Amino acid sequence: MNIPASCKRGLMPYAASVTANRTAGLFEPKNEHLVLALQNAATKVNMHQLLGPSRIIVVDMEYLEGDNSFEANKKVCRQMRGGIAAIFGPVSEISRAHVQGLSQAFEIPHLQAAWDARNPREDFSISVYPDHEVLSGAYADLIKYWKWTQFTVIYEDNNSLIRLQKILELARGEEFTMKVRQLQGGTSGYISMLKDMHEKLEYRMVIDCSVEKVLDILDAANSLNMVNDYFHFHFTSLDISQLDLDRFAQKGANITAMRLIRPSSPEVVNIYNEWANRESNTVRSPLLGMRAIATETALMYDAVNLFARALSSLSNQQLQTEELQCGKKETWKKGANLLNYIKSLEYHGLSGKIRFEEGRRKDFNLDVISLTNKGITEIGSWNRKSGVNISVTVQQQEQDDLTRLRNMTLRVVTIFDPPYVIKRNTTGENGRYEEGFIIDLMEELSKSLGFKYEIYEQHKKAYGSEQKDGKWDGMIGDLIERDSVNKADLAAAGLTITYDRARVVDFTMPFLNLGITIIYKKPEKKPPALFSFLSPLSIDVWIYMIAAYLCVSFMLFVIARFTPYEWENPHPCNEDSEVVENQFTILNSLWFTIGSLMQQGCDIMPKAISTRMVACLWWFFVLIFISSYTANLTAFLTVSRMDAPIKNADDLSKQSSIKYGTLKSGSTRNFFKNSNLTVFKRMNAYMEANADSILVDSNKDGFERVVKSNYAFLAESTSIDYQIQRNCDLMQIGSDLDTKGYGIAAPKGSPWIGLISREIVRFQQQQVIQGIYKKWWVDQAGKVCKTDDDEDAAASAALGVRNVGGVFVVLAGGSIFGLLVSILEFLWKVGKNARKDKQSFWSEFTEELRFVVRCKSSRNLSADCGKSRKDTDAHNGVRYSPANTMPSFDKHRDVLE
Ligand code: GLU
User: Fold this and answer.
1) What are the subcellular locations of this protein (predicted)?
2) Are residues 734 and 754 in the same domain?
């Protein structure tokens, strides 16, 4: 390597009176920027006489052709023979390790600006690069700040793993799910790795690679359409600001990193301008065409300045270099002193404050940067004490997102299912072929957030379920896969928020609440039964009532016989009559009680306290009984009771005559698949066994099947409400089996979901959603099905013959029975009189019949009728002989005597 003389001996020609503090620089040709930074820094130190007017730094530069200790050893020994106060570089691992060993052995301070994870480092070797452990902790802090629980770590080599150590340690915590991938070489390697990540829904990644590979990786991701709003690429390189990332700025992806060198700091601006101007001169700039100063370049500049400040505090004697021989044991006696000075210094350089703790640079600040429309922008900072501090507020972030959203046309996947989305034949007011609840909701969202949207129907008309291979179908699949055709930014339909789906996509707040329920045909109405007037009381009560009637009648009969006050003289004018009568014969008792039961009363009235008491209590019983009967009667005369064969899911699961099922693919089907409750497990087993014949492709098919056959459909209450308001022959069976909600879904990490979600909450609060719901569920229903109450009310307004027919039947039956009994009585009487009058039955029958007929035809004969009738035993009472009954009633006996 041809090294310019100025390089070999420092950049400043110096006079004999000036003391030169000789140092050695060892670098590989690829690290030319470090050489330039070192020389530039030394020149500036000398120019500004930082070491005083008579001292300068001289850098003797050596180039290392390869990464080997032999070459490094040879070149360092050559430098030592001339006497050196410090060694800068090299960067390559093997040479560096060897130089560190030599510096330790000969006690010559070794300063470096490259990342070095050797731990513990040789004492005499000191690095201004941030300590690798603290730096790794900063990366981990950022992951924690973002609350990433699922992410992928991509590493390049073993050093990457050391750099990512603290992030990898996060995986020990249960809340983090981390995948680790090694970067595959070349564009094809990047593409196959990123493709796999896309398929496996790995949207967030931390990439540790050299800065040179960053653009290639992003280009590969871009070719796969992955540099979009849903992906987050975080690079651990501190040099991202050097790159031209403008072509990715509008793509929407989150591209972030951290940096040590802040381009806007005055020191950096000065040096940058100075170096940038050199570009036009013959001397090359350490920037070497970069957009910003590379971290290691700035650190080399800082290392030289740090060294210079240490030199300036020591006298010439304290810095007297010695000519050392590699083969000998002598060391540089002043080296340790100089090293201690360097370690104790605190200096503010291009990379911020430089201060050493235990020989390492642990106290440093980092900027958190992100690619935005304005290019690479600082969004926050990190330091060891206060951790991550993101200065972009949530409000600012939202404002940025909103501004971007306003210029966007979102692709919305849906399923045509009334009333959520309905296909029109002509365009509506909004110029769309679709209408429905969801379209109105999207219109409201688009109005308030200012975005445009285009709707397309999911090609398989499926909502989305996880397949056996872990992939998702339906609308959820379209959000995840995002291939060139089936690529959606939002899924808006009657899409249920479920735990499984929320793992792979983001949902807004629910806009409708619902639950799974059963829809089935209303049972046929039965006309009221002929004897429905008996229904108000159960059979048991009727039987008890008859028993009570018989018992009370019999009691009355017995009590009346016991009590003397019911025995009366049938001829009150004849006080001497020895005959007393009791009106409560068994027949009269039965007549009295039935008379009160029918609320008619009769001419037999109790006279004794005991019988009156019984009568009183019977009337009370009758009062309550008749009131209860009357209160219930109307309902039973009018309600045509419906007997649904099933009343809930349990009934459905236990029978086999009614078939039942759900949608083939959807949250309802999954509800049964995942349930642990016995009833639902039983239903699932049935559905599993008969899947082909009972599961349907769409809600429409399900509802049609309910109407046409003996089939119960398990669907969501909102869809069922819509159907039963339009088809009065259908009804909901039982209550909801669960509670959940519909939400709008977006790919994981979508920046729009928060904004849309917030709008949905506002719509809920301002009752916009209720308005849309009413429009589609109620107002559009047209006819309103009558409820059972309505029908009952209408029926009770006018009772038809059907309602009270039974009463007529009883009346007719009773009348006929009465007629038959009267005929029997007549015949019996005829027979009796015939025997008495010693006439033939037929002559007596003819005579009596004639009398009856005559009696009926002439009112005037009625008196005769009674008179002439041979009524010899018309006496109803019981004749009483005091001699053989009731001897104990003295009073009575007195009367009788
Ligand atoms: N809303 C359901 C879903 O998102 C589809 C209907 C159903 O499964 O009943 O999967």
Assistant:
1) Postsynaptic cell membrane
2) no
Which of 478, 496, 504 has most ligand 1 atoms within 8 Å of its beta carbon, as the pocket-test mutant? 496
Residue 327 has a CB neighbour count (10 Å cut-off) of 6
Torsions phi, psi of 577, nearest 5?
Answer: -55, 135
Neighbours of 330 (CB within 10 A): 11
**823 in any annotated domain:** no
Q: Is residue 813 included in any domain, yes or no?
A: no
Domains: count for the chain: 5
Q: What 3-state DSSP class applies to 381?
A: strand
419 neighbors 722 (Cβ within 8 angstroms): yes
- Identify whether residues 657 and 630 lie together within a single domain: no
| CB-neighbour burial class of residue 100 (10 A; exposed 0-12, middle 13-18, buried 19+) | buried
- Does one domain contain both 194 and 86? no
Dist. CA 211–CA 294, nearest whole Å? 10
Which tokens is 695 given?
A: 């599961």
Q: Is the CB of 666 under 6 A from ligand 1?
A: yes
Domain containing residue 751: 395-514+742-779
Helix or strand run (H / E) with residue 367: strand 365-372
- Angstrom CA distances, 106 to 122, 123, 332, 699, stand at 12, 12, 6, 85
Q: How far is CA 428 from the centre of its chain?
A: 33
Q: Is the peptide bond before 887 cis (omega within 30 degrees of 0)?
A: no
Q: Of the ranges 84-88, 716-720, 747-751, which one carries the lowest mean pLDDT score?
A: 747-751
E strand or H helix that includes residue 726: none
Position 879 scores a pLDDT of 44
Residues 45-91 pLDDT 10s: 999 888 888 889 999 999 998 888 899 999 999 999 999 999 998 99
C-alpha–C-alpha distance, residues 167 and 141, integer Å: 8
- Nearest-Å Rg of the Cα atoms of the chain is 53
Residue with tokens 């009348």: 815
Q: Which of 438, 547, 446 is nearest to 495 (CA)?
A: 438
pLDDT(482) > 50: yes
Quickly state the pLDDT bin for 639 (edges 50, 70, 90). Answer: low
User: Exposed, middle or buried, 83 (CB in 10 Å: 0-12/13-18/19+)?
Assistant: middle
Confidence of residue 886 (pLDDT cuts 50, 70, 90): very low
Q: What is the mean predicted confidence (pLDDT) over 734-739?
A: 95
Q: Is 494 in the pocket of ligand 1 (CB under 6 A)?
A: yes
The answer on 55 and 112 residing in a single domain is: yes
Q: Where are the beta strands (DSSP E) in 559-695?
A: 567-568, 580-582, 659-661
Residues 438 and 489 in one domain: yes
Strand partners, 663: 696
Across 204-220, average pLDDT: 95
Beta bridge partners of 206: 153, 234
515: helix, strand or coil:
coil
Cβ-based neighbour number of residue 15 at 10 Å: 8
CA of 483 relative to ligand 1 center, distance in Å: 24
For residue 90, whether the previous peptide bond is cis, meaning omega lies within 30 degrees of 0, is yes
Tokens at residue 855, please? 């009696």
To test the pocket of ligand 1, the residue of 463, 499, 517 to mutate (highest count of ligand atoms within 8 Å of its CB) is: 463
Q: Assign 180 to helix, strand or coil.
A: strand
3-state secondary structure 278-319: HCCCCCCCCCCCCCCCCHHHHHHHHHHHHHHHHHHCCCCHHH
- Of 603, 597, 583, 585, the closest CA to residue 549 belongs to 597
Length of the chain: 897
Ligand 1 geometric centre to CA of 494 (Å): 7
Q: Whose CA is nearest to atom 10 of ligand 1?
A: 666
Split at pLDDT 50, 70, 90, the class of 281 is low
Q: How far is CA 172 from the centre of its chain?
A: 27
